[in-house]
Design a protein that fits this description.
The chain is α+β, with helices and mostly antiparallel strands and about 180 residues long. It contains six helices and six strands, in the order αααβααβββαββ.
C-alpha cells in the first residue's frame, strides 16, 4: 500500500479522549438553557442517552474533520458598538435578543450581504440567514439554541457556516 494513501489509525482511547474534550467544550460554549428538546427530540434519543448523545454526534463531526469548529471572542466582532448599552438589557431576554439581531443585521448589510430573518434550515429555522453570491451561506443563532436542531443541521446541511452568538463579544462558528 502506498504510504500517502494509508489512513492514520489512532488508538481507541486517544479518539475517545478527543471526543470527550469536544463534548466538554461544546457544553461550556453553547447556551441551551431553556431550549433542551424544544424541537421535540425523538423519544428514542431521550430514552437512552439524552443530550449527551447529541453533543457526542457533534463532537465526532469535529474530531473526524467533517466540520470545523472554533470560538471567537473580541470586543469588536460587530464593529464599534456601545456594549454597555446592550449589557443593560437582561442577557438572553427579548430586548437583548432583538438588539443583537439588529446589530448583526446592520453589520452584514454594511458589507453588502443579503439578510433573511428566520430562514429555513434542514431542521427548523435560524434567527438570521446571511447570503452573498460566491460565499458560503451563513446561518446565525442569537442567544440560546436547541442542541437537537444544531446537531441535525450540522449533520445534514452542506457547504455552510453556522454561528451561535451566546454573548455580544463571542461567537461559536461551525463550518462545513
Amino acid at each position: 500500500m502506498n504510504k500517502s494513501n494509508k489512513k492514520l489509525d489512532l488508538p481507541w482511547h486517544t479518539v475517545e479522549k478527543a471526543i470527550g474534550q469536544e463534548i466538554t467544550w461544546l457544553k461550556d460554549v453553547i447556551d441551551t438553557r431553556g431550549q433542551e428538546g424544544v424541537l421535540s427530540v425523538p423519544k428514542e434519543i431521550n430514552k437512552w442517552a439524552g443530550n449527551y448523545y447529541l453533543y457526542r454526534l457533534i463532537a465526532i463531526l469535529i474530531v473526524s474533520g467533517q466540520i470545523k469548529a472554533r470560538e471567537i471572542s473580541s470586543d469588536h466582532l460587530w464593529g464599534e458598538i456601545d456594549y454597555p448599552e446592550i449589557e443593560k438589557l437582561h442577557k438572553h431576554g427579548k430586548g437583548w435578543h432583538i438588539k443583537m439581531m439588529n446589530i448583526i443585521d446592520d453589520y452584514f448589510k454594511s458589507q453588502d450581504y443579503d439578510i433573511t430573518v428566520e430562514p429555513n434550515t434542514y431542521h427548523g429555522r435560524a434567527d438570521l440567514g446571511v447570503f452573498r453570491r460566491g460565499k458560503k451561506d451563513l446561518y446565525v443563532e442569537v442567544g440560546t439554541i436547541d442542541i437537537y436542531k444544531l446537531c441535525v443541521n450540522l449533520h445534514f446541511m452542506k457547504n455552510f457556516i453556522f454561528i451561535v452568538v451566546p454573548k455580544e463579544n463571542k461567537i461559536i462558528e461551525f463550518e462545513k
